[in-house]
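INFO batch 0412 | record 1 of 1 | parsing
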Amino acid sequence: MSTMTRAWLILADILVMILLISSLILLHLNPPQKLKKHTPLPIEENATSDTFLLPSLDLNATITLEDLIRMGAELSTEEYVIENPFLSRTLDEGLAELSAKVGDPVFIRIFKEESLLEVWIRTGTEYQHLKDYVICAYSGALGPKLKEGDRQAPEGFYKVKKHQLNPNSKFHLSFNLGYPNQYDRAHDRTGSFLMVHGNCVSDGCYAMTNDKIEEIYALVESALQKGQKYVQVHAYPFRMTEEMMALFSENEWYDFWVNLKEGYDYFEAEKSPPHIKVEDKRYSIYE
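INFO prediction complete | emitting C-alpha cells
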C-alpha cells in the first residue's frame, strides 16, 4: 500500500469518528421527530442511555452505540478509489478536448510514489494536462540515482533532444533522459542510458508497456520535429505538496527534495516549465 493510500485511510478513520461522535451528540440533544405530527419518537421501555431511536422506514428502528461504532469501523476499512480521468480517457479524446494535436509542445512529469507519468501539452501560452500513463516498472526506491549500477531511477530536471530518441531500441522505443545532467555531475553522480522505454522491464529506467510508450514517444518525437528545442522531463519522488513533504521531513533526501519542490511549485503556479540552471551545486529556477 502506498504512502498516499495510507494517508487517505487514516484521514477517513478520523472523519468517520468525528461524524459518529457528532451524530451521537445531536441525537441525544435533538431526538428525531415524525415529520407530520412533530412529536418525539417513542422510546422503548428497555432502552438504555446508549440506545437511540433513528428514523427508518417504520420510524421505530433502534440502533445502539455499539452498532454505530461497528458501522464506522466497516466504513473505515473500505477502499476509496479516486478516479483519474487523465488515465481513463484515450489520447485522441484528450487531444480533442484540448483542441491540441500531435506535434504541439509537450512537457512530462514523473512521480515515483504513484508510478505515474503525466503528459502536458501547450496550445496557447500555458500547458494543459493531456494524459496520464501508469509506469509499468521502475527500479530502486525514493531518492536520486547516485552511481552506475545502483539500479536506481533518477530524480531531477532533465531535457530530451532529438539525438536522445531511439526508435530502434531493444526495449521497443526509448528516449534518453540525459542523466547525468549538470546537477548530477556537480555531485559526482555516475550512470548512463537512463531512459523512458517500453518492454515493462527496468534496471534504473522508467519502463512503460509497449502501447503506452508508442503514444508518449510519438508526442515527444513530433514536438521535437515541429520545432520544440527540447522536452523537459521532471522526475519527482512524489507530488511535492506541503503534506507529502511533511511526511518525509526526516528522510535523508529531504533537502534535495526541497530544491526539487521549487520547480514543482513554479509549474503548478504558472502552468509552464521554468528555465532551470545549476548554480552552486543546486537547481536555480527562473522564468
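INFO post-check: The chain has two domains: 3-76, 85-286.
INFO record closed
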